[in-house]
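4.2 Preliminary Data

To establish feasibility before requesting continued support, the project team ran the inverse folding procedure on a target of 340 residues. The structure was first converted into the token representation described in Section 3, and no sequence information of any kind was made available to the design step. The complete token record follows.
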């Protein structure tokens, strides 16, 4: 699994940085530090954040509605600098891709798409602050981070020269396996989106018990308000603005979605074990099974122990890894050498 393409190491570095950005973003969001800096791109007018007591006093005078909190300012600043470094690295990846554009197997459009996405992410990052954590923007910002990570992973896969060998299954089973894998990836993307909507609307703790919610199998839920994507902007969404029944509707939808995704992934994994020959396919099935069990455990732990920060961040990271595994599976199935 090697490559001679010059941009491969750069892509590897950008991929590691993108994963850090995704994890830092979830840490910042779950620590309620999304407005740790009330201005953009600075932080209370500073390149980092206010350091001295005099600077803190001046900052709070300049932003009377946003008292300075060091434990919330530094995660937001670090997230911004990591994201900015990633954008700079993607510009370099594009420069290398253009320089070697005539070499066989060197993608050009995918790096350009990444560059456009990173620019959009910068705008979403700004709007996250200026629109005071409006859930629609924060969710799109989260999805943009996952998309950046996914496209970098896809670029890495395309730069590799290794392929799966011819599968030891019939064409019929192979086609069904490809379709099942695609459906699984779409379902995981939908579940990640639901998870983002749950987090940005502060609905993760709306159901503090298991397997029921607030002692009921089907509690009072307001789906209309919970999924009102046309809600007005402002004034400030820190802590959320929805009432309890709307948050319960969001949480229960995410919980039911998790059950459906887990069942379908179990079905896909069983197919991989049953129909797909070769150690590569079995290894892929083992990876998916391990990540699925990990995600289920982390999701249950979030409810049982009331959303501990480390577990919640790990749950976000686990979702990203599960998505990357499914992208790998779909790509390998699509590119595998066949004999039919």
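Position-by-position output of the design step:
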């Amino acid at each position: 699994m090697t490559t001679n393409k010059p941009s491969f190491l750069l892509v590897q570095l950008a991929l590691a940085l993108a994963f850090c950005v995704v994890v830092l973003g979830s840490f910042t969001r779950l620590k309620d530090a999304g407005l740790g800096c009330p201005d953009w791109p600075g932080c209370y007018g500073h390149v980092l954040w206010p350091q001295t007591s005099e600077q803190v006093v001046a900052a709070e005078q300049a932003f009377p509605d946003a008292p300075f909190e060091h434990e919330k300012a530094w995660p937001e600043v670090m997230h911004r600098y990591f994201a900015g470094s990633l954008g700079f690295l993607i510009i370099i990846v594009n420069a290398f891709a253009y320089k070697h554009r005539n070499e066989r197997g060197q993608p050009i459009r995918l790096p350009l798409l990444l560059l456009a996405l990173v620019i959009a992410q910068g705008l979403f990052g700004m709007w996250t602050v200026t629109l005071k954590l409006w859930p629609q923007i924060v969710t799109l910002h989260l999805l943009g981070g996952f998309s950046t990570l996914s496209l970098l992973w896809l670029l890495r896969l395309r730069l590799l020269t290794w392929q799966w060998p011819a599968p030891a299954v019939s064409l019929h089973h192979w086609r069904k396996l490809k379709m099942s894998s695609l459906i699984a990836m779409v379902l995981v993307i939908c579940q990640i989106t639901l998870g983002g909507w749950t987090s940005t609307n502060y609905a993760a703790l709306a159901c503090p018990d298991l397997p029921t919610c607030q002692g009921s199998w089907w509690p009072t839920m307001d789906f209309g308000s919970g999924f009102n994507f046309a809600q007005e902007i402002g004034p400030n969404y820190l802590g959320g603005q929805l009432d309890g029944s709307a948050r319960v509707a969001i949480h229960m939808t995410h919980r039911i979605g998790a059950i459906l995704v887990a069942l379908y992934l179990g079905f896909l994994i069983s197919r991989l074990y049953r129909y797909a020959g070769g150690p590569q396919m079995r290894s892929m099935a083992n990876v998916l099974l391990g990540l699925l069990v990990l995600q289920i455990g982390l999701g249950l732990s979030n409810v049982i122990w009331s959303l501990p920060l480390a577990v919640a961040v790990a749950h976000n990271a686990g979702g990203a890894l599960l998505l990357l595994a499914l992208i790998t599976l779909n790509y390998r199935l699509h590119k595998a050498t066949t004999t039919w």
